[in-house]
Structures
1.
Amino acid sequence: MARSKATPVASPVEQVDTRYLQTLLGYNARRAALSIIGVFLERLAVYDLRPVDFSVMSVIHHNPGVTSRQLCATLSILPPNLVGLIQSLEARGLIERQPHPTDGRAVGLHPTAKGVSLMQQAEVTAAEVEIDASSKLTPHQRQTLVQLLQKIYL
Amino acid sequence: MARSKATPVASPVEQVDTRYLQTLLGYNARRAALSIIGVFLERLAVYDLRPVDFSVMSVIHHNPGVTSRQLCATLSILPPNLVGLIQSLEARGLIERQPHPTDGRAVGLHPTAKGVSLMQQAEVTAAEVEIDASSKLTPHQRQTLVQLLQKIYL
DNA sequence: TATTGTTATACTCTATAACTATA
DNA sequence: TATAGTTATAGAGTATAACAATA
């Protein structure tokens, strides 16, 4: 049988069609998250804070005395993987470990004055990153997006 | 000086306050993406497809003859990291590598009948995952969310 | 007996350098 | 000279098992 169409079987793909993947929520959420985190990574580098360092410091900053266990539960970090993060932040003088007032097993994590100062600056930069990484969104759209995302995971 | 407030300095943190982090788009996007991907991971396990396998197979399925290089650019995968994925999918009989019609360096990736059949089923499951992972969203909200996410990364 | 924090370790994911074959 | 695909390897991120100290 002669081929009737002009397009041969093995014609090269000129432009990759990603329309199907773009219908998937998970695909879009992951791509968007990686895009924002990429900007975050660059702009917070001046503070020597990766996203995970920032989130850990942020929880300690806003919850002085929080325990490692609470941090793990809050940020979905496994306890063995938090140990190095905490040691690093303590070695940099950003946090202090103090005895827990009621539980002898636990340790309360507190920001130092240096840690508080760093986070106050870092949070300003983080707010700028928010805007820059979503510059095609209006403030109202940004707010809507946050609300919809929280309906997914909260 | 006697302490005048009822709350001691080292009072334990009862409930971790995450309100600050929850204002951040990047934090919400990452948490939501991980939540959806978690459901995806479980439900696509029956096809032995991880998210990355699914996305690679999906691009090949909808773009027969696509090259490795095009796949890498489309999915933000580095070429060395794609090699093993392609070899695995080929070993499973889901894709075939054919000579590229116009570029002797490149290889066209084509889904086999088995691969097409698998993806047709997997895409049905993926559609179900979409709904289940965002069950608190109306169809309209889900559509809005996809549109807003694409404004971030496209 | 259960939980907090920790060590050691394994596994996965991602990134870089360098090579070959072809354009 | 530049690009497609590949190899080897390094680094970062994530996971499980097991232990000491305390509840």
Note: The radius of gyration of chain A is 22 Å.
2.
Amino acid sequence: MKKLDKGAAAKEREGAKPARGPGFEAKRMEILRGAAILFAENGYHETSVNMLSEKLGVSKPVLYYYAENKDDILVQIGQISLDMLRAAMSRAQKAQLSGVGKLRHFFTAYTEIMCSDFGRCFAFVDQKVVSAEARAENSAGRRVIEAAIREIIVEGQSDHSIAQCSPEFASRALFGAFNAIPRWFKEGGEFDAREVAEVYIDLFVTGLGR
Amino acid sequence: MKKLDKGAAAKEREGAKPARGPGFEAKRMEILRGAAILFAENGYHETSVNMLSEKLGVSKPVLYYYAENKDDILVQIGQISLDMLRAAMSRAQKAQLSGVGKLRHFFTAYTEIMCSDFGRCFAFVDQKVVSAEARAENSAGRRVIEAAIREIIVEGQSDHSIAQCSPEFASRALFGAFNAIPRWFKEGGEFDAREVAEVYIDLFVTGLGR
Amino acid sequence: MKKLDKGAAAKEREGAKPARGPGFEAKRMEILRGAAILFAENGYHETSVNMLSEKLGVSKPVLYYYAENKDDILVQIGQISLDMLRAAMSRAQKAQLSGVGKLRHFFTAYTEIMCSDFGRCFAFVDQKVVSAEARAENSAGRRVIEAAIREIIVEGQSDHSIAQCSPEFASRALFGAFNAIPRWFKEGGEFDAREVAEVYIDLFVTGLGR
Amino acid sequence: MKKLDKGAAAKEREGAKPARGPGFEAKRMEILRGAAILFAENGYHETSVNMLSEKLGVSKPVLYYYAENKDDILVQIGQISLDMLRAAMSRAQKAQLSGVGKLRHFFTAYTEIMCSDFGRCFAFVDQKVVSAEARAENSAGRRVIEAAIREIIVEGQSDHSIAQCSPEFASRALFGAFNAIPRWFKEGGEFDAREVAEVYIDLFVTGLGR
DNA sequence: GATGAATGAGGCTTCATTCAT
DNA sequence: GATGAATGAAGCCTCATTCAT
């Protein structure tokens, strides 16, 4: 919230890092995952840095060794989530499938990601808390993916696997519906994420009519 | 010695009130509406009581004259929203329409409500901040409406206006999709809420397939 | 979400503490002593946390590092005072003295304690401000000491060093009289606490009659 | 605490009053008595003006009609208490009794007063909260009475009804002991205030020795 | 004479963050 | 590389008090 130069930090993470040992990345992931779980469960503001340090079993300064800020933690979680989503999109795009096939392919992966530790946090925690800069980066990432989905829909309309409809609206309805899944999904329940995704896709493809 | 029981306040609102003149209700609504707008725009935690009092043009104690708490403001906004939703559901249920017709009827109203000042706040702000008791009441309200939708779906399946599908999943997908509308909807844009609702319903009814 | 249970804090002080280095105890005592002086001088409610932090030369959060609450400060002061009183009583009970000798022994120490920084605060500040739980603990401590005094009186009546009289009333009169001493006693005045105690005891033993 | 001109108010109460109806004095007493009970029971700071108005069944502005201030309420209670004490002292001084007889006479009345509604408040509530001016007046009142007691003691020493001892210390011990009575005294218990006073006086006169 | 509504000022508490060791 | 201790800033809330009606 008092962004001095967050950009520097973010860039640093992918640039000339200051001599970080081999365990660094593993520990960083461990911390981020723990934080993601807590943020998703309790909410970002309801999870104090104190609580993080206690529940993660590390001292507060350690947290500041792995993240610039409290919200940098959230930013990093978002980056990881977006990376996963981008990879999923990439795989879908490369798949030898019809438009609707790619849609199904992507949203299955999307559901799995959004029900994972990182994804749940990404889905639940409002990005309003992070710096404008980081938020912009995040939004850009999302937008790229949404654009890709619209393109897939258009593609499906070309190959006649998807009906004529507004790609904008369809994309929004799809993301809206799928984003809400982690809100009620319980790991280890009757269905796993993959199955839920299948049902949802079928619903969207078939429609409720008749 | 401080907060004994939050619930007492909520109950008080419908119980033995400490003498309230006319005008109270109007001012209360004015304050709640202003707060709802700010909460929806900036986020609950990002909107301090100070900010509320400044932007609403009242002193801080006034807020505490109309609400027990900062989160009671949110609770009251939720109650108003739920009341509107319940009324909408009631109208839909009473309408002389097929299942799909009732669905369309309800979700049109739903969209309008969720795009209103109160509804946007209700849609955006996580109820994690409110007391367990109030949250339970809120959840119960939502669940009643969700159950009613599932019933309407079943009804539609009986009257053959809705295809065979899991009412649970369909209901969740519908709410997920519609809940996300206020996240991008802009008042005064190309479409009004009613029109967006139409498009969405068509999408859901027709399906993306073929 | 705010104050769940005050008692947890008190218990924590003797339980699983969050890692406290040496120096902690000394600083804690320093803060408590300063607070005790201010509370005794100005009154508990008249001494704001702001004032405490200013006069003690520490920032406000530091106070909350050493105490849960404003009233936990008072509670801790009470615990220290009670510990001193218990120790004094223990010494008096073990002394090889007649009943009246033990009485004299205890109330001399009592006076010294009640005229000390901690004792004055303990004597002056009404425990009405602290949580029911802490107040109960405090009262229990007092009652144990009062019971011990009654026992000493009975003992003195057995060994004929104390006249027949109601131990309950005698004990109450004694504590009442001695508790009031710090209200007028000035350190460095004509008499020191020990001497005042002597005079009081003589008065009580000899009586005003004849 | 923000004494503008409390003196004016106090004086006004005994001077040219602004046309107050006949019921004024009765209602004033009723309010003061109720406040005294609440202050004694809950403490001055723990009793908000809101609570006063609720429990006394009058609106807040009414309280400000009968008292300048919250602490003026306390001041008035103090004045009433002091008036009672002064009257009691006056009666004791005029009685045709030995020194010790006057002592007994006064402290019996003193106990009754201090166990009454007004007296309990006077005994329990620290005058630290009232304006310097009012506190001075109050202290002066107390001091006059204490001086009178010392004089009675001297008188008793002259008429050989009281033993040689320091009148200062004796007076302080007496007031200390008697002031504490309302702290444990319960109306309607085994003893009434008069009887408690008798026992205490006997204790003080006879002494604990032998 | 009474009250619903309003307020300035200040209270207590906690948060994210840093630094000396 | 780690931590106990510290802090500036800000948060929510409540109090005694007053006025327009």
Note: Residues 1-16 of chain B have pLDDT under 50 and may be disordered.
3.
Amino acid sequence: MSLDIQLPPRERLLQAAVELLANSDGAPVSTRKITELAGVTAPTLYHHFGDKEGLFDAVVAVGFEQYVASEMDLAPTGKPLDDVRSMWDQHVRFGIEQPHLYLVMFGKVRPGNRSNRVSEAEALLREKIDRAAESGHLNVPPADAVRSILAANIGVTLMLISEPETERNFELSDMTRDAVITAVSSDAGIADSATPVETSSVVVAAIALNAALESSNPQQLSNTEMKMFLEWLHRISKDS
Amino acid sequence: MSLDIQLPPRERLLQAAVELLANSDGAPVSTRKITELAGVTAPTLYHHFGDKEGLFDAVVAVGFEQYVASEMDLAPTGKPLDDVRSMWDQHVRFGIEQPHLYLVMFGKVRPGNRSNRVSEAEALLREKIDRAAESGHLNVPPADAVRSILAANIGVTLMLISEPETERNFELSDMTRDAVITAVSSDAGIADSATPVETSSVVVAAIALNAALESSNPQQLSNTEMKMFLEWLHRISKDS
DNA sequence: CTAGCACCTATAGCATTGCTATATGAAGAG
DNA sequence: CTCTTCATATAGCAATGCTATAGGTGCTAG
């Protein structure tokens, strides 16, 4: 089983944990499998890491360093909010590429007991947000901005992870990212109450689309397609 | 231990599970404690619910019905986006008031394996969003709006739950809520350089028409024509 | 009334889990 | 050579989810 070359047992345990965690599709990984794969016995694990969570913490710490390192690679662009955007994207990418690590870090929520990793991620984001605040790009207190962005970021990442790979739609990430960032930024104010169009019939909607199409010609349809499309649109607008 | 009045064992199991879940501060609840409190033995549990998850599913179903019921109490205001806002608030409130139930419902994420509860919540939200789309309040395809809002909603709720009660700041919820809803709504344009206003109105109208067509099928087009028409409509709503 | 039948519950126990009390080995210090 | 210290192994405990099997319990058919 233990195909590892001779390394210090501590390292072999870490390596085994990472490997099993990566191939277990999110199912719980037992200490026995880990020690077996590492070619060690139980007390060795507990001698080095205290308990199972200690081992996972160590594993996560390694993963988190990669995460932080990838954040640091992103040089400041001079536009702090763009840096925040990059950070969001890195966060999502990390979650998608290492879902098991990500779930160990952010997946298990306990009431009234925030995980260390959340605090660490918050601190990382806080740095960038502070820079945005300094240069007057922020609309709300930095702490609020950080919490809102991070909450949405984690929510989106968890949702993407939970979706089958085939139907993952990353527009979800971009859209939500820009939504929360725009909301906390002073660059563009959020307008509130508006004038709803109370009518909801097919005819009215068709007419509206027709009018909109006349003032701007989108490129998604060819000329012949557009011609036919408008013809049908006209027919629909006639009556219902 | 079993202080319950004589009820059918199935009900006593449910009741015991709820009670233990509520008093366990998020720690795992064992089947033995449940059966002990219910005054039953193990096979009874497995006879009625299949396995532990089945029991929790049943518990959650009850909780979810409360959740849905509280949603339904909110009469439509005529402003669909306000209804969406109420729904968000109800979601958060439910999570705060019953964190253990909430965590069973939305807390355990598995890669590529979305939970039923997420799908159900999505369907509930989808209804309201569709109404917003029908009346031209939506900026993006309803499916995208729903996912974005729900992801942020869950993310915010999880974050609030994980925070100590004393320092819970509900502004986080309001802020994020308005951010994502504003982003998907056409009532107040996001100052986003990527989406010029002219095409935006086309997109809005196309989305509204699409939603309207789904709720009433007009007879002016044949089946094949309608199919192609919808295909093009979809392409137009995708934005450019 | 009784025999059969379906449904529900209990006895007892298995395999796996995280973890540990205790012992054994090796390596340096005196 | 002895003694201490660190690291690993032997063996096993208590708790977990779950089940093979058997025992009631009530209903319907004869």
Note: Chain A has a mean pLDDT of 81.
4.
Amino acid sequence: MKDIARRAGVSESAVSFALNGRPGVSEVTRDRVRRVAEQLGWRPSTAARQLSGEGAATVGLVVARPADTLGVDSFFLQLISGIQEVLAERQLGLLFQVVEDVDAECAVYRRWWAEHRVDGVLVVDPRTDDPRPGLLEELGLTAVVVGGVPDARHPGLSTLWADDAGAMAAIVGQLYALGHRRIVHIAGLPGLAHTERRIRALRAEAERRALAEVRSVTTDYSDAEGAAVTRRVLTQETPPTALVYDNDVMALAGVAAATELGFSVPADVSVVAWEDSALCRMVKPWLSALSRDTPEFGRTAARELTSLLDGGPSRAVRVPVPRLIERESTGVVRRA
Amino acid sequence: MKDIARRAGVSESAVSFALNGRPGVSEVTRDRVRRVAEQLGWRPSTAARQLSGEGAATVGLVVARPADTLGVDSFFLQLISGIQEVLAERQLGLLFQVVEDVDAECAVYRRWWAEHRVDGVLVVDPRTDDPRPGLLEELGLTAVVVGGVPDARHPGLSTLWADDAGAMAAIVGQLYALGHRRIVHIAGLPGLAHTERRIRALRAEAERRALAEVRSVTTDYSDAEGAAVTRRVLTQETPPTALVYDNDVMALAGVAAATELGFSVPADVSVVAWEDSALCRMVKPWLSALSRDTPEFGRTAARELTSLLDGGPSRAVRVPVPRLIERESTGVVRRA
DNA sequence: TTCTTGCGCTCAAGCGCTTTAGTTCTGCGC
DNA sequence: GCGCAGAACTAAAGCGCTTGAGCGCAAGAA
């Protein structure tokens, strides 16, 4: 900036005013300064900016999952690429961290906060009894909870939520229409808020339709557990005729397991994946899946965060209900 | 720090010396200062640190791939989680960015450099005629090229490289031993250095063994192209008896395509995936795959970068040759 | 005793920006 | 001609940390 000031024949302050679009310099000076800056390839030092009161121009995202669970999931990278699109427009950086568990995640937030490393964070995988919203509000760290439910106890945070109950009702409705009465929901990690939400929604729907043989089983999202649970439920006396998996990976592993047991999909058992991805069209039969626009989800989350950073109000944004795409893995019940 | 200094009854400089383990304070003072700092929950402001000459305590990683290609690949998240392990020890942050192409990636490096946002970067997906090493050296940005080949033109960069040629030779050798003479290699993106390396290695191996009907076809790594190429080569007059896919996703899609065409795996055609992941054990038959320890790869890369940041010499590190894990998708050739 | 040495510490400058409080200058009304 | 407002610009402080120069003091050397 000193260079620019010298070359443009003005003071450093004038340069600052000019380059930041603040009043206090004439248009001709502003233009001149801008040209010089451009010519010198000047970019403000984020550190200096931050030190004099501006933000860090960075938002944080920490994912708390064991490394191996992370691998196959297409969700995160898709989400991140959506987030990036929005952040890139504003020249905001994304500080990304993978940790083992929620405690470590909280420690990261504390550290980031103390080091002034980020202006805000995106919280993913909200849980039941989640310590994170409370912590973030206590720290005063701007945050958006991605996939939570609006929580009146934390009015400072924004929330993005999907209507899991509606989606579950749609799935069950569709399976019901195809004649299915025995349904098992192979759910994800028990502590996660959306897992609990889906389980509750399934139970409600089962009661409404008076279906006795409908239940949920929680897993760790891995292909191994998906396959194991599938084998277990299909070898019981009266096996279910439909399986709903909480992610694509388990659905795939489930189909493989079912096939191995001699079950044909969808003739003997229908399969629905709660998460669509290329995986679902990579095996025969193609999997019927609940499709949501994950990059768009990320974009919305990032937009909500930038709006908060701009001083906008916190809000609860409802994202579109995912659509059930029927492919080849669902069909009418064949009488046993 | 001012607070700490006051409470400990010393000057700010003494605090700085004490907390950074520099000489200039007695052990008792150091301890006292440390205790006060701890009590106050003090953490240094990265911005201030950086402004006074220290680094940004951040390394950058930019991935240049279209969003949809990113999704299914398990490679990146695994790599990142390995990287993080090492970075976390040193309290280094990871600035992560997803962009569309290499030009955009270069722009990001320029910006990061000008803004002093990162101390170093990890470069992935090296290409033939890659502009990035040159740019990074010109900018003087510390960098490690992950998966490149050592390049004497850029002595400042460290390189992590795997012996693709050796791995390819092993695969072909194994397939040859099983009686395969017609092999198609469904490769990845044509511009990538390791794609070219594998293609060259295959050609060399074919010449060595005098195999006329061995060739490579490049793709975009997607399941769609993997399936399309599979269909194309299997419907030609004398179809290959073995297919080598450059990633797990294509291999999976390829098996599905082959099965649909009436080919049985491995009876009619053997399949090898160059990249192991849960996917390979998620479908029947289980895929024989080239397995490498991706998190360890990330750890090594990060270690190399931190060593460089500590002033260590740049070097070319060779990572272990991936191992071919034979599962169910490879077998002896059945006479047609 | 005086001089040196080194230890433990403080002072103050400086990193690259922003921002508040001036200062100078021009043009206007009276 | 004077006072005044407002525009255009400058000076300087300050953000939180590091660091080189300097200072007082006790211990050892001469």
Note: Residues 10-14, 17, 23-26, 29, 48, 50-53 of chain B lie near DNA strand C (CB under 10 Å from a C1').
